[in-house]
Amino acid sequence: MKINNNRSSKDLLRKNEQIRAAEVRLIDEDGTMLGIVNIREALAKAREKELDLVEISPTAQPPVCKILEYSKYIYEQGKKNKDAKKKQKAVSLKEIRLKSRIASHDLEVKVRQIEGFLKKKDMVRVSVVFYGRENQHKDIGFAMLNDMKVKLEQVGDIDGNIQTQGNRVTVTFVPKA
Questions:
Q1: Count of C-beta atoms within a 10 Å radius of residue 20
Q2: DSSP 8-state assignment for residue 100
Q3: Residue 19, phi then psi, degrees to nearest 5
Q4: Which one of 2, 12, 100, 158 has the fewest beta carbons within 10 angstroms of its own beta carbon?
Q5: What is the DSSP pairing of strand 64-68 with strand 52-57?
Q6: Beta-strand (E) ranges in 39-141?
Q7: Is 13 helix (H, G, I), strand (E, B) or coil?
Q8: Prior bond to 58 cis, omega within 30?
Q9: Other residues' Cβ atoms within 10 Å of the Cβ of residue 148
Q10: b/e for 34-49, b at 16 or more Cβ within 10 A?
Q11: Between the CA of residue 133 and those of 74, 87, 119, 164, what are the distances in Å?
């Protein structure tokens, strides 16, 4: 039997003689609970049906074992994991930096860009950066981000509050569910 080398040993379940418990909670191949039995008795039942005894839940007291075909079980678990991975979507974080003296039209362009990102279900962090004497007028940045919040309320929400970090005022927009 060929073993897949890219799978770690912790992913593999114990089977047959590898099971170390004295007693196990046994489940038949059709899913019926047979109760708590001695490990030798469980192994004998598995061999009688020409199947494997696989430890499904090793942390339970006593461990839960099931009589089944091991290779078929591993294949089905792999398919389940692959399907779950396909359905998973990684959320990405986009960042847009603005200067405090941005023109109104340029700001509208950035708002449309953020709207597009939010429609694609991406998170967007908007930072207003201040240089030199501009740091004295951070209220301009707060006003700009509050204005954005109003314009984007149809497609996104603010995650947390507007924050100040050094010479920046930032806010994170998350897409509406």
A1: 10
A2: T
A3: -70, 125
A4: 2
A5: antiparallel
A6: 52-57, 64-68, 93-99, 123-129
A7: coil
A8: no
A9: 24
A10: beebebeebbebbeee
A11: 64, 49, 36, 16
